[in-house]
Amino acid sequence: MTMSALGEPCVLLKLGEIVLKGKNRELFERRLISNIRDALQTVDIKVDVRKRHGVIAIFLPQGATAEQADAVARRVADVPGLIWIHQAWRVAKDPDSVLKAALELAGESEEAKRGARFAVRSRRRDKRFPMTSNELDRFVGGAINDEYHLPVDLKNPELTIFIEVDRDEVFVFTGGIPGQGGLPVGSSGRALVLMSGGIDSPVAAYRMMRRGLHVDFLHFSGIPFTTSESIYKAYALVRKLDRFQGRSRLWVVPFGKAQQSIRNSGQDRLAVIAQRRLMLKTAEEVAHRIRASALITGDALGQVSSQTLANITAQDNAVELPILRPLVGWDKTEIMAEARRLGTLEISELPDEDCCSLLAPKRAETRAKIEDLKQIERRLDAEELCVQLADSIQEYTL
Ligand code: ATP
Ligand code: MG
């Protein structure tokens, strides 16, 4: 779209689930606007983010280019809490200004050049406008029809001109891109993601950011018995996901020696669950230190032997914080499709030496007994060990 003297360029944002909020809606909206402002700091243009009735408008400076408007729209499309992002013109609040903008928008659209079927859809958030929505539809639709000889199709148009009458201005636009949906990051609090280098945990992190959690990332590396590759992968994954929340931190625990102690405990079949419990206990210690109030994992019921119902129970038993498992009901193919969409799949698929491969037994226990696990932990002095592990943590801030 080219910018014109007919109006000012702007980007119009439609809110998702926030609109269902009652008394708290203000709070969610304020959080969302602040997240949008933060996200736009990476875009090279000064903008003005304004709350309107039920929508948010981003005003661009007069003379902003189409590329700049595009960059703003694409950036906010990653901010959870929005369902639609429209590049629009903001025009004066009178029927003739609206008509001029609509004619120009329709005229320069690819659809119009092919003689597409079109419709005009108007709504009034301010009922004081001199025309009703229906009158505006017919006024603008008739003019487009006269000017470009396009056929009207109200049921199944190929081109739709949207007109939204607001308190101080009218927004006119044709298309839009879908947003992430969900709730503004931070509105649900803070949590800590257990982040392997695998496919599932980055997707789990994204799903919970989308439900309003700001997350930190915790990775257990097999160091000193493995290379640092898994750390690079975790870091690359965190970088990939940072666009949804900003200010991401990756914490890395050197876990190799603790794993060795678990292996030396001689309980081969329980090693994986014992290790997972130790990770969770350490994660809980870290969560307290950074004031996170939940843990997040990429577990999916039945995906591997550590994720049977009995073994999930044994893991929940290890900590007091809630363990959120957003992927619990997902199939691997669904998780992979989402990872591809997010851009994390190609990173997750890079080879690495996961710390878990150090102790994969021939036959893993699918029904671990909590008493047996507690016995291993007493011998390891797990309570003390997880404090030491938390002390040895390294921080990587983006
Ligand atoms: P993923 O693809 O996320 O690695 P997975 O299918 O490999 O999952 P598991 O290895 O059983 O499954 O891990 C289950 C969950 O435990 C992971 O989703 C992650 O939350 C956590 N986890 C496993 N290994 C690590 C690790 N090295 N560091 C941090 N968290 C881990
Ligand atoms: Mg894994």
Short précis:
This protein is of the alpha/beta class and 398 residues long. 39% of the residues lie in helices and 19% in strands. The mean pLDDT is 93.
Radius of gyration: 26 Å
Second-tier CATH architecture of the largest domain? 3-Layer(aba) Sandwich
- CATH domain class name of the largest domain: Alpha Beta
CATH superfamily (homologous) name of the largest domain: HUPs
SS element count, helices? 14
Binding site for ATP: 194-195, 219-220, 276, 298, 307
InterPro entries: Rossmann-like_a/b/a_fold, ThiI_AANH, ThiI_fer, ThiI_N, THUMP_dom, THUMP_ThiI, tRNA_STrfase, tRNA_sulfurtransferase_ThiI
GO cellular component, one term: cytosol
Keywords: ATP-binding, Cytoplasm, Nucleotide-binding, RNA-binding, Thiamine biosynthesis, Transferase, tRNA-binding
